[in-house]
Design goal:
198 residues, alpha/beta, Rossmann fold, seven-stranded mixed β-sheet, 36% helix, globular
C-alpha cells in the first residue's frame, strides 16, 4: 500500500469525479438492497473507499449510513470526523465488523488491489445480511492501455489482479455471490450480485 500512502494528496484533490448523474446511477444499482422503511437504517460499506468521495455522495442521494473501510490512514484523513460518513481503518480480508452488519458492499476500482481476493469475498459474505448484495466496479484488463496499467501496478508493488468480466462473474459465483457483469464506458464494467445463503 506504499503507493497510496504518498499518492493520497492527489486522490484527495481529484477523487470526486462522480457527477450527480453518475451517483444517481450507482444508487440505482443498489436500490434493491436498500429496503428499510426508514432510509437512514440502510447500511452501505465502501471497501477500499479511500478519501470517501463516493461514500459522501452516496449518502447524500440515498440517506443511508455509509462506512468506508480502507487500509491507508493518509486516505481516510480526508473523511471528516463530524461528517455523515464513518471512516474505519482496515483491510478487506479481515474486516472489524459484526456478521450481517451491512445491506450492501461496494468496491470501486479497488478489487484488483486486494492481496487475498477469496478471503475478501468470504468477509463480504460474512458482513452482508442475508439477501444483501455486492457491487464491484472494475477495469477490464484486455487491450494495450490496460495491459500497460497492469504492468505499471505490478512494478509499483501492487497485486494488479484484474479480472475480465467473465472471469469476475465466474469467480464471484464460485464464492457464493451470483450476479451479472455489465460493460460501462471505457474499460470499466460493473458486477452486481446477490449473496447466496450459506
Amino acid at each position: 500500500m506504499g503507493f497510496f500512502n504518498w499518492a493520497a494528496p492527489a486522490f484527495g484533490h481529484f477523487a470526486d469525479r462522480w457527477s450527480h448523474e453518475t451517483i444517481r446511477e450507482v444508487a440505482g444499482w443498489l436500490d434493491s438492497y436498500l429496503v428499510a422503511d426508514d432510509a437512514t437504517q440502510n447500511k452501505i460499506l465502501d471497501v477500499g473507499g479511500g478519501t470517501g468521495a463516493l461514500a459522501t455522495r452516496l449518502h447524500e442521494v440515498t440517506n443511508a449510513q455509509v462506512t468506508v473501510l480502507d487500509p491507508t490512514p493518509q486516505m481516510l484523513r480526508y473523511i471528516s470526523k463530524d461528517g455523515p460518513v464513518t471512516a474505519v481503518l482496515g483491510v478487506a480480508e479481515e474486516m472489524p465488523f459484526k456478521d450481517d452488519a451491512f445491506d450492501v458492499v461496494i468496491v470501486t476500482d479497488a478489487f484488483h488491489h486486494f492481496r487475498d481476493q477469496p478471503g475478501a469475498i468470504q468477509e463480504f459474505r460474512r458482513v452482508i445480511r442475508p439477501g444483501g448484495g455486492v457491487l464491484v466496479v472494475e477495469l477490464d484488463p484486455r487491450g494495450l492501455v490496460m495491459r500497460a496499467i497492469v504492468l505499471a501496478e505490478k512494478l509499483l508493488g501492487e497485486p494488479g489482479a484484474f479480472f475480465t468480466p467473465d472471469q469476475m462473474c465466474h469467480f464471484m459465483s464460485q464464492h457464493g455471490i451470483s450476479g451479472t457483469c455489465t460493460k460501462m464506458s471505457g474499460a470499466s464494467y460493473r458486477f452486481v450480485g446477490d449473496v447466496q445463503a450459506s
